[in-house]
Amino acid sequence: MLEFPRWKVIWLWLITLVCVAAAIPSLTATLGLGWPSALPEPKVNLGLDLAGGSHILLEADPSQVRQQRIEGMEESVRNKLKQDGKDIRISDISNRDGALTFVVADASQVDAVREAVLPLTNGAGLTGQRDWDINVVDANRFVLKPTEAGIQQAVTQAMDTAVEVVRKRIDALGTKEPTIIRSGPTRIVVQVPGLQDPQALKNLLGQTAKLEFKLVDTSALPSDVAQGIAPPGSEIVPFVSPAEGGGVPSIAVKRLGGIRGDQLTNAQQTNNQQTNEPVVNITFNTDGGAKFAKLTTQNVGKQFAIILDGKVLSAPTINEPILGGSAIISGRFTTESANALAISLRSGALPVDLKVVEERTVGPDLGADSIRKGVIAMGVGTLALAVFILVTYGRFGVYANLAVIINVIMILGIMGIIGTTLTLPGIAGFVLTIGAAVDANVLINERIREERHRGRKVVQAVELGYKEASRAIFDANITNVIAAVLMFAFGSGPVKGFAVVLMIGIATSVFTAVTLTRMWVAQWLRRARPTDIAL
Question: Which pLDDT score is estimated for 299?
């Protein structure tokens, strides 16, 4: 028998009403009506193809990753030889031409240097391959060159990190459902719905935000610095603006040592209490704070340069030790530029520079037209189906039509609750789920009709009709769910949008077409007790 206890009826109506209520904000926004700001607003976000927005394609230079690895190896080799406590002197160090070279002063120490350096060349994976090739030429000159396998692994890690940094920066803008995916080994696709100013996005993502604090080399002669000549162990770094350096275009800083910005825990835009100029207040983690305190304690009276992306923001003098684990970055900022820098520093530095190789802006007019045409197509199709179902199945057609309407509203409500994004393929998923819901009701009603033709009583025919048809409905929708899951797992962008709507639509169509209509039919049969049904 068609049994529906009161508690089950209450739960079914409660689930339905919650989903319908969640869809109301989206429906009011579509109709241009207001929504009270004090109430929660589970709203369906529109994708790039519907709301418009910005699309940019970023590309990294693998040669920069190679150079970074070589510079990192140089510092590792220096630190390793110091830690061993042996009197090993090296000279003629070069990190040019894609390799690190240095000369061991005492040829008898070559084996000791090889033993010390060898652990630094091991790969991070489990394949046993080395990330570096070691060669000794002219008896005491070491040549360390990164292997291609090591470079490829480093590029992959750098791009994975870059994707996460880009995502953090865009999330800080308050955007909804951006699309950020890898495209090939060195490219990243970024799509931000609703953002009509791509320049702001380019400025934010084009900044590497590599922050460094390095001591100024006061032994460098101004004439040599002007010609780009740095003392051994130092490098020439230009100022962002010559005015920041008192008219000096560049200065010499110690190449190794110092503190990197990857040890920051926070960065906030604020104003200088004395000059009221916008500045960025940064806070170090425990390790970074200890290093910063040590740097400022040991170098009171000396200058240290604040370097951002290879350019000096300022080079203040250390008047006293800075022990609080925080510092202030100044550099003729505007409020907007200081806030953008704070966002970049909070999200972390990009491991590699990203260059914009393609950009375009999608206007909202195309999306609005797509929505309008999609709604018209869905409305016309739904109306035609409703008339057909009503004429063909009578009262059962009324139940089927109500189920289709509730199904559409429930899809919107669930999408609003989970905060998913509706794309143009998602509208196609809407239409497809409407067809699936109607198809389920057709199967049920045809099975009931067959049972009546076989001489079954009304209640038995309805019960067997729902029971037998439900098996075919569940089997068919399970295969659809598997396909949708695969599309969501391996697809991207619009494909995922279609898969999400399809999965939600399958669940709601089965719920409305099978469970809700069965409840309505059971209540009608219990109340009216008909001797025949018009099918």
Answer: 82
